[in-house]
Amino acid sequence: MEKNVLVLHQSDELKLIALQNELCLSFQGKAGVFKKYPLWIELSENLSAKEISGVHLENIFLNENGVFLSVIIKTESGKEIQSSLQLLLFRNKDEMPEAFEKKFLLDCRIFRIAHGHFENNRYWLTDSTWKKIKK
User: Fold this and answer.
1) What is the mean pLDDT of residues 2-22?
2) What is the Cα–Cα distance from 60 to 79, expressed in whole angstroms?
C-alpha cells in the first residue's frame, strides 16, 4: 500500500521518540502500550513540499486505538489541514485510561514529503523532497 506522507527531520523525530518513551513510562502499570513506527504523518491531500508553509504538532489525545498528536499543516495559500500522528498503540482497548493530560508542542521547520510504502511489516520511502521553512 502506498500513501503520501510527511517525514520529520531526524532531530524532531528524536523528540517524538523521547515523548513516546515518556508516555510509555506514564502508562506503566495502567495500560499495555506499544510504540508505533514509523513516525510518519499520513497526508489526506496530495501536497508538494513547496505548498507547505508550516507543520505544527500539538495536543496529545487518546482514543480507542492509542495515543495521538494533533498535526496542523499550513499551506502557502493559507489553508490549514488537520491530521494526526499515532505515537502509541493500546494492547487491549479495555485498558485505555479514562483521562490523560500531557502538553506537547513542536513547530517543525525541516521535513520531507514522500511516498510511503507499507507491505507486511516492511516500510520504505520513495520520491522524497526535502523542505526547510525559513523563519
Assistant:
1) 96
2) 22
| 3 state SS of 17 | helix
**Residues 6+ away with beta carbon under 8 Å from 120:** none
Contacts of 32 (CB under 8 A, 6+ apart): 90, 91, 92, 95
CA 78 to chain centre: 21
Residue 12 has pLDDT above 80, yes or no: yes
C-alpha closest to that of 16 among 38, 1, 32: 38
What percent of the chain is predicted at pLDDT more than 70?
99
Of 96, 88, 92, 91, residue with least CA distance to 36: 88
For 49, 62, 97, 110, 127, the CA distances from 5, given in Å and listed in that order, are 11, 22, 29, 14, 11
Task: Give yes or no for residue 104 having a pLDDT over 80.
Answer: yes
To the question of pTM greater than 0.70 for the whole model, the response is yes
Exposure of 43 in the CB half-sphere (CA atoms within 13 A)? 24
* 104 HSE (CA, 13 A, CB side): 26
